[in-house]
Design brief:
The chain has about 110 residues and is α+β, with helices and mostly antiparallel strands. Helices cover about 20% and strands about 15% of the residues. The chain contains three helices and four strands. The longest helix is centred in the middle third of the chain and has 9 residues, at about 60-70.
């Protein structure tokens, strides 16, 4: 929870899954970390884990569209830790990514 939020969804080594209702936290390896750039499969990456939202510094348009089609919203992280971003999310203070805002390269950042 004290780690910085990662800068790009598809190349993250791990995801932190947090239940904002009860505070449970788990670390999940990215099941699609070594995909061809631009061909991320969000469900494979998340190991078909059920989530309602993703917080990340950068993400491609196809990944946003894929997540959105499953009812998963994607939010832009703020500078700071995972814990900081979860608190901002709970207060509805993170902007939502839309496919037209998606990045086409790595190194977006929350750091």
């Amino acid at each position: 929870m004290e780690s910085l939020a990662y800068s790009h969804f598809g190349s993250a080594s791990y995801f932190i899954i947090c239940d904002t209702d009860n505070g449970d936290v788990r670390v999940l390896p990215n099941g699609d970390e070594h995909h061809v750039h631009g061909a991320c499969l969000p469900l494979k990456a998340l190991g078909e884990e059920t989530v309602e939202a993703v917080i990340v510094g950068g993400i491609g348009g196809r990944a946003i569209a894929g997540l959105n089609s499953l009812g998963i919203k994607v939010y832009q992280c703020a500078p700071g830790t995972v814990k900081d971003n979860i608190e901002l999310f709970k207060r509805n203070q993170l902007p939502e990514w839309t496919p037209d805002q998606a990045c086409s390269h790595h190194r977006h950042g929350c750091e």
